[in-house]
Amino acid sequence: MVVIWEDMVDKKYPVRVFSTTDRYAGTFEVLDPADHSKVLFTKPVGVSYGAPFGPDAADVSDWQNAACEFVDKYEENNG
């Protein structure tokens, strides 16, 4: 799998999207800030246009929103 997008939430939580065997699908992950090998959250996501030159702006916006929602809930529950 190839990383097609990655970012950080709150300068703390690594977030990334991998391509899958279906070029219009990916796997979204939020990683543990203390142990980047530990996945806190994962879900399948769509990838518009197959991302041959990078992800579509609408996809990135959706992924950023999903990351922020997860991190907000995670922080609320795990302080």
Number of helices: 1
Unreliable stretches (pLDDT < 50, length at least 5) are none
How many E-type strands? 4
Average pLDDT metric: 92
Helix content: 25-40%
Largest sheet: 4 strands, antiparallel
Distance between the first and last residues' Cα:
32 Å
Radius of gyration: 12 Å
Q: Key features?
A:
79 residues
What does this structure look like?
- The chain is α+β, with helices and mostly antiparallel strands and 79 residues long.
- The protein has one domain.
- It is built from 1 helix and 4 strands; from the N terminus they run ββββα.
- It has one helix at 57-78; strands at residues 3-9, 13-19, 25-31, 39-46.
- The chain has a 4-stranded antiparallel β-sheet, covered by helices on one side.
- The relative contact order is 0.21.
Concise structural overview:
With 79 residues, the protein is of the alpha+beta class. The protein has one domain.
Question: Layout of SSEs?
Answer:
Elements: E1 3-9, E2 13-19, E3 25-31, E4 39-46, H1 57-78
